[in-house]
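Subject: Interface between my chains keeps coming out wrong

I've been trying for a while to get a sensible model of this assembly. When I model each chain on its own everything looks fine, but I need the whole thing in one frame so I can look at the contacts. Pasting all components below, labels as-is. Any help appreciated, I'm running out of ideas.
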Amino acid sequence: MKTPTKIAIQGGPASFHDAAARLLSSKESAIEILPCTTFRSLCQMLCAGESALAVMAIENTLAGSLLPNYTLLQEHNLHISAEVWLPIDQCLMALPGQDVAEIHTVVSHPVALMQCSSFFNQHPHLTPREAHDTADSAKAIREQQLSGTAAIAGKAAAELYGLALLAENIADTSQNFTRFLLLHREQPEQTLTANKAILCFQKPLHTATLTLVLSLLQKHEVEVSLLQTLPAADSGNSLVAELEAATKEQLQEAIAQIRPLVEGLQVLGILQKAELPEQKQTAAIL
Amino acid sequence: MKTPTKIAIQGGPASFHDAAARLLSSKESAIEILPCTTFRSLCQMLCAGESALAVMAIENTLAGSLLPNYTLLQEHNLHISAEVWLPIDQCLMALPGQDVAEIHTVVSHPVALMQCSSFFNQHPHLTPREAHDTADSAKAIREQQLSGTAAIAGKAAAELYGLALLAENIADTSQNFTRFLLLHREQPEQTLTANKAILCFQKPLHTATLTLVLSLLQKHEVEVSLLQTLPAADSGNSLVAELEAATKEQLQEAIAQIRPLVEGLQVLGILQKAELPEQKQTAAIL
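Reply #2:
Try treating it as a single job with all components included. I did that and got this:
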């Protein structure tokens, strides 16, 4: 029997990272999820060889890029092989046999609570309470048999911990998606259909250099889909660029020509771009 | 007697926003601080004319840019007139007459707790507990006379609420600074010594256009100090650029030439650049 592939994630079982890990590792015959409490410990686990892969959130459509996570990738010299967008369907769940009127306290991660502020305005009898994780809030309700308390988490957490769904898609906007990256310690083989590159440069990056870099990208018909300046303290203010082109070869040629122009060019990954799903979700009290 | 100038801030009295508001409004003869619980409500208060000014954090040296805040500035059509960098000196404080060994619980904002993780590793008898605000955690200790509980907050909170400092500068790194912006509803008069501009563009911004924009900036000897792609959901993925030049005129001329090239150029502010302080702080148990 084959040993399962170990994948480090941020958060616990039935978290959104767990769902992303299952999607991104569909080629593996069996996987074992290793929960981490922070993004830094996830990188350390992968670097130490305690896991074969890791999955890390990098962008949310409401909050934007998770800038410190790019710094972690850079510092730990990790490699990205794939990405996926996942809808973040915030659901309200509680021990079976209760309805919303019987709930007084709602526990979840602060970001999830914040994303559901209209729901709290509509149900003023509900008091939000902050916790470390969405799925772990659901787990606590099951383990401590907490009546009158609900959790906000993904549907998978309700299934795993045997809770009843009281409401689905209760976030303020239905356009709530998170992009997750699949990470490796060593450089993985590049997919033939790769059409995206994720790079970082060290600053200072003078306007003259940046103009030259962009004119080279233009020459190779490479589009810049994302530019981010990283936090000043750790990285000395690096710049991240996500690039897109029709073929992997265009990206590789453009990168080869840029390399001598800039300080500390690091290719974080050459991969296939994931499309942001268009689907709209409708809030529903069940 | 003159009515005090009302300034909306995020957080309560003795918070870091409060300190930034006092620095940024030093020209006002008297001010009144209006606390807001979210950055959105701060913008709404200013737009509704309930405050004359507002102060908003935009960047931290550890966490990077607060990307959704640029979106709020854009959506509410607000104007920036000044900025300041403030050292974030996380201190441990409790009711007087206790030492660290007598404390069991430490309350603060999740980001402050996270920034002090080495301190918690060194003092494993301390249990962190999350709260909504740093300064309000200090207030709760005073009001509820909580023995055995400490708060992590700025020194000003200890002074305001009569708590004793147990330790100073307990964050993992001393390079913890936050940049704050002074905001107006109407466009303010530009300072003569302005040497910085904050702009945003609507995307899609093709490589060809971006190359043209940068070559114009280069022609006017304008340096790009920051580039950020904003969250996809609300703003349709705008790009923010912070620019620096020797004179205000160089910036104005460059902006005039860029304007016809890009969609929806918005000048968020033309102001004097604040320098990031170099000072190092040393952690100290008092």
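Reply #3:
Confirming on my end. DSSP finds ten helices and 16 strands in chain B.
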